Amino acid sequence: MRSLQTYGIKPKSNDEGMSSLHGMQRQWRRSYSHVVEEYTVGLDRDVEILVAQLVNKEKHYQVVSICGMGGLGKTTLVKKVYNHNDIRHHFDGFAWASISQQCQPREFWEGILFKVISPSKEQR
């Protein structure tokens, strides 16, 4: 907020300015499942391990949590798994969801639901 004032940018009100600023930050940081790094180094083995866990018919994993500090390559790894041919043939439905520090639970769950069931405008 202070840097906005430095440059003479004044939001209409404190609450409105901060919420729109957080909204813009969320949009900039959002990741998309269809944008996959073409060349990556050192993730192939990790991708194969995760794919093997998810398609394992004996254990029936449907969710795998990936966590760690920023910059480790979590999103890149998950995109590779999400778009892997074995994964695409194993599961019936797919949804890409990112959770930010300013998570809005309703928006998060609605986003997953809408991606899985693809409702019409009337159903929404």
Main sheet: strands, sense, barrel: none
Separate helix tally: 6
Average pLDDT number:
78
- Can you tell me the residue ranges where pLDDT is under 50 for at least 5 consecutive residues? none
The count of DSSP E runs of length 2 or more, i.e. the number of strands, is 0
Helix and strand pattern: HHHHHH
How does this structure look, described?
The chain has helices at residues 2-6, 14-29, 44-55, 74-82, 85-90, 105-117. The two termini are 36 Å apart. The model has no long low-confidence stretch (mean pLDDT 78). It is an all-alpha fold and 124 residues long. 49% of the residues lie in helices and 0% in strands. It contains six helices and no strands. The chain has three domains: 1-30; 34-91, no CATH class; 92-124, no CATH class. One of its GO terms (molecular function) is ADP binding. Residues 1-20 are annotated as: Disordered. InterPro entries: NB-ARC, P-loop_NTPase. Residues 45-117 form the NB-ARC domain. Pfam families: NB-ARC (PF00931).
